């Protein structure tokens, strides 16, 4: 049973560019959440997708957007990249409605903005 | 609003010694509590979680944690650590918000196990 997978593993972009990160959830999961983990920090919640809609959003600007597909996979898009967007981006999947929302994390995509 | 404070940024310890990683939280609603471990260049892995019931929770790799509601704490313990326990540990609190449980993570505690 494959866990959560993310692509690419690493990415280098320059300021002002746009980036798309991809995530495939654990088999049987229907909810995908995205987190930003800056160096030396804990993960910060960006948003959560369920039934192809954004259900919750953290304190991130509109430059951060996402999408969930019918197969539950998801994309995170970041426009007009800033140096401060350099971080590890984590995707986590879960099964909505279980109450305790145990999340399973992927290995992350490390984004470097130059 | 909810928040998590991990009181130690770094905890050095010798192999086979006991360890405690401290976590305090604040929340206006009832919460679920989690501890995750992150090994270098990897994602987060759930160690254990507290939902309800017994305040002592046992997790994987010999870790356990105790929920203390009056002190709003959820400290992680292991009686005897191994070199392989060297990693970053994150405490997280999850409260119901808008129909979903969204976790808030602490800044992490780096556990360094020396031989």
Structure notes:
- Chain A is globular, with a radius of gyration of 13 Å.
- In chain A, strands 2, 4, 5, 6, 9, 10 and 11 form a 7-stranded mixed β-sheet that branches. A 4-stranded antiparallel β-sheet of chain A has the order 1-3-8-7, with no helix packed on it.
- The model of chain A has no long low-confidence stretch (mean pLDDT 93).
- Chain A has strands spanning 5-7, 10-13, 19-24, 31-37, 44-50, 53-57, 64-68, 74-78, 87-94, 104-105, 109-113.
- With 114 residues, chain A is an all-beta fold.
- Chain B is an all-beta fold and 115 residues long.
- Chain B is 0% helix and 61% strand.
- Chain B has strands spanning 2-6, 10-14, 19-21, 23-27, 31-38, 44-50, 56-58, 64-68, 73-78, 87-97, 100-105, 109-114.
- In chain B, the strands form 3 sheets. In chain B, strands 2, 5, 6, 10, 11 and 12 form a 6-stranded mixed β-sheet that branches. In chain B, strands 3-9-8-7 form a 4-stranded antiparallel β-sheet, with no helix packed on it. Chain B has a two-stranded antiparallel sheet with strand order 1-4.
- In chain B, strand 10 (87-97) and strand 11 (100-105) form a beta hairpin.
- The radius of gyration of chain B is 14 Å and the shape is globular.
- The model of chain B has no long low-confidence stretch (mean pLDDT 92).
- The chains are: A mainly beta (114), B mainly beta (115).
- Chain A binds chain B through residues 4, 33, 40-45, 48, 50, 55-56, 58, 90, 92, 96, 99-108, and chain B through 4, 32, 34, 36, 41-46, 49, 51, 90, 92, 94, 97-108.
Strands, helices and their partners?
The complex is a heterodimer of chains A (about 110) and B (about 120).
Chain A (H helix, E strand, L loop, with lengths): L4 E3 L2 E4 L5 E6 L6 E7 L6 E7 L2 E5 L6 E5 L5 E5 L8 E8 L9 E2 L3 E5 L1
Parallel strand pairs in A: 2-11
Antiparallel strand pairs in A: 1-3, 3-8, 4-5, 4-9, 5-6, 7-8, 9-10, 9-11
Chain B lengths: L1 E5 L3 E5 L4 E3 L1 E5 L3 E8 L5 E7 L5 E3 L5 E5 L4 E6 L8 E11 L2 E6 L3 E6 L1
Parallel strand pairs in B: 2-12
Antiparallel strand pairs in B: 1-4, 3-9, 5-6, 5-10, 7-8, 8-9, 10-11, 10-12
């Amino acid at each position: 049973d494959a866990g959560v997978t993310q692509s690419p593993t690493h990415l280098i972009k320059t300021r002002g560019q746009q980036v798309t990160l991809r995530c495939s959830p654990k088999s049987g999961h229907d909810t995908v959440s995205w987190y930003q983990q800056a160096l030396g920090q804990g993960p910060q919640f960006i948003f959560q997708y369920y039934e192809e809609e954004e259900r919750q959003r953290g304190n991130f600007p509109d430059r951060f957007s996402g999408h969930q597909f019918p197969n539950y996979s998801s994309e995170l898009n970041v426009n007009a990249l800033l140096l401060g967007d350099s971080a590890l981006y984590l995707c986590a999947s879960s099964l909505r409605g279980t109450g305790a929302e145990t999340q399973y994390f992927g290995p992350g995509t490390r984004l470097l903005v130059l | 609003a909810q928040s998590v404070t991990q009181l130690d940024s770094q905890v050095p310890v010798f192999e086979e010694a006991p360890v405690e990683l401290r976590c305090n939280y604040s929340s206006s609603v009832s919460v679920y509590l989690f501890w995750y471990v992150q090994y270098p260049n990897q994602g987060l892995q759930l160690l254990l979680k507290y939902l309800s019931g017994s305040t002592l929770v046992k997790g994987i790799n010999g870790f356990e944690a105790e929920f203390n509601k009056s002190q709003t704490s959820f400290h992680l313990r292991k009686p005897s650590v191994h070199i392989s326990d060297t990693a970053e540990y994150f405490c997280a609190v999850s409260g119901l918000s808008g129909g979903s449980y969204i976790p808030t993570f602490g800044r992490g505690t780096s556990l360094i196990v020396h031989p």
